[in-house]
Amino acid sequence: MTLLAIVISGFVLAVAAPWVTRATGKYAGWILAALPAAIAGYLISQVSSVASGQTVSVAYQWIPGLGIDLSFMLDGLSLLFALMISGIGALILIYAGGYLAGHPHQGRLFCFLLLFMGSMLGVVLAANVLTLFVFWELTSITSYLLIGFDHRRKEARAAALQALLVTGLGGLAMLAGLLLMGHVAGSYSISEILSRRDVLQSHALAPAITVLILVGCFTKSAQFPFHFWLPGAMEAPTPISAYLHSSTMVKAGIYLMARLTPALGSTELWQWLLTGAGAATMLAGALLAMRESYLKRLLAYSTVSALGIITMGLGIGTEKAISAAIAFILAHALYKGSLFMVAGAIDHETGEKDVDKLSGLRSAMPILSIVALLAAASQAGFPPLAGFVAKEMMLESALHAPIIAVALTAALTLSAALLVVVAGLVAFKPFFGGERPTPRHAHEPPLSLLLGPGLLAILGVAVALVPGTLADPLIAPAASATLGTESHTHFKIWHGFNLALGLSAIATGVGVLVYATRSRWMPLAGATAGLDRLSPTACYHGVLRFVTAFAESQTRMIQTGRLRDYLIVIFLVTIGVVSYPLITRVGPPVWNELGTLHWLDVGIAVLILLSAFAAVTAKNRLLAIIALGMAGLGVTMFYVIYAAPDLALTQISIEALSVVLFVLVFRRLPDFRSLSSRAGKLRDVLIACAGGAMMAGLVLMATSYPSATSVSRDLAERSYPDGHGKNVVNVILVDFRAMDTMGEITVLAIAALGVYSLLKLRDRIDEQPSASAPSAGGRA
Amino acid sequence: MSEKLALLVPEIIVFLTTCIVMVVGLSPNLAVRRSCGLLSASGLFIAAILAINGPAGDGLLPGLTPYIKAVIALIGVLLVMLVAGTVDREEDARVSRGGVFNALRTNRAEFYSFILFSLTGAMLCASASDLIWLFLALELTSLPTYVLVTMSTRGTRSQEAGVKYFFLGALGAAVFLYGFALIYGGTGSTKFVDIASIIAQQGINQITLAGMILAIIGVSFKIAAVPMHFYTADVYQGAASPVTAFLAFVPKTAGFVSLILLLALVGWDHGTDKVSVGHTLPSQLRLLLWVMAALTMTIGNVLAVVQSSPKRVLAYSSIAHSGYMLVGLIAGPGDYGAGFAHNGIAAVLFYLAAYGLMNVGAFAALAGLERRGRDGRPVEIDSFDDLRGLCAGRPLLGWTLVVCSLSLLGLPPLLGFFSKLPLFTSGIASGEIVLVIVMGINSAIAAFYYLRFAAVAMLEDPSDGPKPLAAPFPARAMSGLVALVLVISLSFFGDALMKASRNAAVVEGSGVRAVPASPSPGHKAGDRHDAASPAAAPAQRVGA
Amino acid sequence: MPSTLAAVELNSYLPIFIILLMAVTFAVANVAGSLLIGPQRKGGNKGIAYESGMNPVGTARKRFNVRFYLIAMVFLVFDVEIIFLYPWAATFPNIDPGSPDSLVWLGRILFFLFTTVVAYVYGFRKGVFRFD
Fold it and tell me: Which residues of C touch B114 (CB under 8 A)?
């Protein structure tokens, strides 16, 4: 019950948020933050019971027909994430209250933030993969709204769309993977799926499932090559970047990977994909950060890098690595959330985002500078901070990785060094050195802007200093849930002198060195700009352009607006589709059943063919009609030969009537004009011939398959007793099918009448050229 | 005989309403004339209630009949609300200014009666148990729509649309009629029950197969699927928005019902033995439907991406939705007694209802706005610029558009997602993984243009210059509101409708592998049709 | 086999062909005879449409009111109605009056008549029968 309330309450409060904001003004952030704070409080109260291995779960029916239910569970992994989401959420709401004080759409921002928080809690608490997917997509759409919050700016809208497209498309791939997985496992419940590891991994679809789900996770967690949307998303106001794009939403993919590790993990494919993508992301993020000078973009790339490290840890998959990844998640959430808020506070108080133009703010904002240093030191991995411990654990596990351990360790060390540089740029450079003028006069930010970053930075210290109280109860159960077995790794600062510590020291040293001499390296980073053409961003724009161009060319090609072109396609398709099974299944028609041909048959057939040819090639409508009539008469001759003179008489009268009707209709039409080219005509001839061949094939086939019951004998038997006529066809026409005949005559009469009136109308239009076209029911 | 009549009570009600509307719409009194819409809606509503409580059909899918009738009639109510004010606007204005009433200049009677005729036809499709009946019902659905297109707006564009629609429609009708004739030629019966039992006994012969192929191609006109999809954009754009909403739903529903009935003749005939699903469809038909589905959704989505007119976007996207639904047809009803998630037919039936609602909502937002044309006459809006900032300016229309377009996109947790999901799951269950992936990619492409609606209405500021005015017909906005409420509420409480569609999608045995008399999991809720079960009916020739 | 059958069958149609032949011969012979033998006078009263009676006014291609078309359509409704009434009337007496079928049959034709009435009322309202 409480779990459901936790998820739903965010949505409920979100709806009320605009009114609350209007009513309470500048205290709105503080008031709204009560809800996430309460949620966090509840979650903290559950820590000890979850740590002892209990899981809380609830299930309510939602859409049982589809196997979707509102079922939630709270285990170690969920608890860690939920706590981060609600705890940081509370701080962010307070921060946003200060950051956007007086903004006309502040209520809307709170609404979106709370919606997002509810969705995110839904993702991490869901106990059913489809429910999880529903909330997953909700985070995408709320993130879209949040990134596009500043909707007047075109860049913000484009970034929002980019983020949504990338994560949304990844989400679709993930949906396909989840559905396949549910299909294979026979259930959509996460606990059921996790318990069917053997079924899942031995199934032929296992690789497809893994890849599809990972595509979803990678897009959401900004893994290479889908990382590019994250820096773009920095168009959002800082509270949003701090919340979504550092500590929560980008971790959703991580969460799902961790969640599914017991079911899908430790296969070779899984390991290679995760470590490969993780390492690539880690390096790409760290290297790309070197080219940036805007605070938030720097942080964004360092986030990408950190996400890569976590993914790599999950991919290595040993107990140590998983624990390290979990520890890194926690440490990263603490310091990165803090750094983002610091960056926002700097921007808010000085109006300057460019690191190169910021210097010496220490005296103007002393508290902020301490907070920034604490958080940045954690990112740089200085002891005794959470970031240090996580980095140590990660290095340790990379050294013992089952695959390519050396390469992974080297890459990790390099990334760690570069993260030191980023930390220096973000938190050292703006505060130290000589003072420089800023667009706005710099001063200490208000409490609302200090509380969040300060608290998170202090937690970063506290976690590392008293790990037994703060870190282990969170990390160990989460690692256990990820592993599927009990985890014994502990979060502690001092692991003794080992290779990992040495590597860490080297990384820190190199990082400090690079930072100190960064002016020399900058041109090098700029030189990589030439590679941008090959970057995923370029691919993304290329795909967009391709889809548009493809659609345009298709529109021009397919949608010409000419009925004739449409007909060509329809006829071709019909002919092809009908003929294909005839040819493949029936084979050539069975000639011997057709009997012998008389010379008369041949002669008439030639006559019909000639008339048809004349009808098609005639330059004059009248001629065409008459030729068509000739063809009809040829058919009549067949009736005569094959002993159906009555049918022949009927046919003759119908032919005559149609010729008269045709003449009536066509009399007033203009002469034929040749509108098609020679090639076009040839094409039409071919299509017509193919159509004729298809019909001939159908007729041949029909003759070789006498229908199950034949109506003719029955009618012949009933002809005299019922109809008092010896001529079967006459009896059919005037007795058995009298209604049809009458109907036909009526239809012909109405048609004739209609044609006549149309001709009259034409006369009238000729007389009054201005007369408007008739509309149905009007004075037609 | 009287059982068959009892089956037709909803249609008869709608038809009687048509008769009344035809006369009332020509009353000299303006207020009486204006009651046409209300009368039509009430008639449809009564018909829907009667259909829900009505007997099951006597065809191969007995549960289908009441379900589809109720869906058509209920969404018909919304459509009737939506078409308010499409015709006779100037005439009414003239008369209320004191002009003399002229019966020849008012089109209301014809307009509403054609709409009701078409709805009657679509409902009759669901009652069909015979090829000839099905043909007549399909044509009754389509013939009025040709006129509706032409009379809905003035100008040459709608006339061109009407002519194109008519010619291609006639071609489609000819093709499927020829197909029906070949099916009769191959089996010797026009009765569904007999045809199915003959095919079950003797297997499908080539002439029946050719007939089925032609019938499917012909019916593809009704559902705007490849290769008969060409008219869609031209016709939908040429017609007035409310009529377009009508075209996108009613003939499509009739077409899908016909396809379900036709395919049930040759496939999905599985008794209690768990035959692997869908493979009972002849491989040629399966291949044909597969290619049709893949091409239809791809062409629809790709072409929708570059359109600049919202109506054209919705037109092309309606092609794409037909493609999605074809996946459900290929999947078939699944193993005997399969649940909703694995029953492709149930998925299609549910999707039809959901699509109808979302479609009404999206078009209601378009139809709720208008501009002044150059001659001062109101014209429809036809660009995305007119939708900019709609949520701020006109929240009801704006949010209706946003929610319905996101739902059409299939974004969770909206109705569109829950209606698309069973298509995915049933496709996977029947082994059509590739097709499901094609569908997934297409859903992704759909994001490009559906998000445009949402973004334009929600995020952008209104454009400079004159803003579009609200169309002075509260019924239109009301239909949008109802659709919005239903889309949202069905997202959370859609299970009853899913159960209904699940019960509607039970294929009865064709008489050879008779359905066991004991209640099987398949028809728990729909036990009304036990007496009408066609089981054990011997092959019987249809008399002349 | 079919062709012999045709030959046998065709024999029975010989009288018809003879009659046709005679009719054609008669007509052609008369026209040709009058052309050959009769006096040939031109102009004057010979040229007018009717040698006696009223002189025609205006052209033959005169417009006439479109309402005639509507009248014809309404007439057709009548016409078709009769077509359906005949077989119904011929069958109805054979149905057992006690059976429920008889009511259904009666109901059907009443329903059909009702639709016809609706068509007429519609036509009436639309002003088909108004000539002003």
Answer: none
pLDDT at A684: 85
Is C125 part of the contact surface with chain B (CB cutoff 8 Å)? yes
CB-based contact (8 Å) between B9 and chain C? no
Return phi, psi of residue B267, to 5°: -135, -175
Between CA A342 and CA A445 the distance in angstroms is 10
Measure the CA angle with vertex C22, ends C20 and C27; round to 5°.
100
Distances (CA, A) of B443 to A244, A670, B223, B348, B465: 25, 49, 19, 16, 35
Does C61 contact A at CB distance below 8 Å?
yes
**Count of H-run helices and E-run strands, chain A:** 33, 2
Among C70, C113, C122, most B C-beta atoms within 10 A, so best to mutate, is: C122
Task: Tell whether B339 lies on the interface with A, counting CB pairs under 8 A.
Answer: yes
Residues of chain B with pLDDT under 70: 1-2, 268-280, 335-337, 508-544
Give CA–CA dist A416/A419, Å, rounded: 5
Q: Which residues of chain A neighbour C2 with C-beta distances below 8 Å? A: 641-643
pLDDT per residue as tens digits for the range A97-143: 888 877 777 888 888 888 888 999 999 888 888 888 888 888 888 88
C11: containing domain: 2-47
Confidence label for A712 from pLDDT (cuts 50, 70 and 90): low
If you ran DSSP here, which 8-state letter would residue B130 be given? B
* B419, part of any domain: yes
Residues constituting chain C: 132
Q: What is the CA radius of gyration of chain B?
A: 22
Same domain, C75 and C31: no
User: Per the structure, how many domains does chain C have?
Assistant: 2
Same domain, C40 and C80: no
Residue B407 lies in a domain: yes
| Chain-chain contact of A574 with B227 (C-beta, under 8 angstroms) | yes
Least confident of A191-205, A616-630, A751-765, B353-367: A751-765
Same domain, C71 and C117: yes
Residue A748: closest C-alpha in chain C: C76
| Residues C34, C78 share a domain | no
* Residue B382 maps to a domain: yes
DSSP symbols for B38-49: HHHHHHHHHHHH
Rounded Cα distance between A258 and A313, Å, is 10
Q: What is the pLDDT of residue A36?
A: 86
Smallest CA-to-CA distance from A704 within A576, A585, A599, A602 is with: A585
Residues C37 and C71 in one domain: no
Query: Is there a domain that residue C131 lies in?
Result: no
Confirm whether B280 is domain-assigned. yes
Q: Which domain covers residue B233, as residue numbers?
A: 2-515
Q: For residue C102, is it within any domain? A: yes
Q: Do A763 and C61 touch (CB under 8 A)?
A: yes
How many domains, chain B?
1
- pLDDT tens digits in sequence order for chain C, 132 residues long: 444 444 455 667 777 788 889 999 999 999 999 888 887 777 666 666 666 666 666 666 666 666 777 777 777 777 777 777 877 888 888 888 778 778 888 888 888 888 888 888 888 888 777 766
Write down the pLDDT at residue A600.
82
Could you give the ipTM of this predicted complex? 0.81
Residues A64 and A188: their CA atoms lie apart, in Å, by 11
Across the interface, whether the CB atoms of A582 and B340 are under 8 A apart is answered no
Indicate whether C119 belongs to any domain: yes
Residue C53 belongs to a domain: no
Same domain, C76 and C122: yes
Please tell me the distance in Å from A646's CA to the nearest CA on chain C. Answer: 10
Residues of B in contact with A555 (CB under 8 A): 303, 306
Residues in A closer than 8 angstroms to C76, CB to CB, are: 746, 749-750, 753
Q: Are residues C8 and C43 in the same domain?
A: yes
Distance from CA of A559 to the nearest CA of B (A): 7
Assess B497–A contact: CB distance below 8 Å, yes or no: no
Same domain, C75 and C121: yes
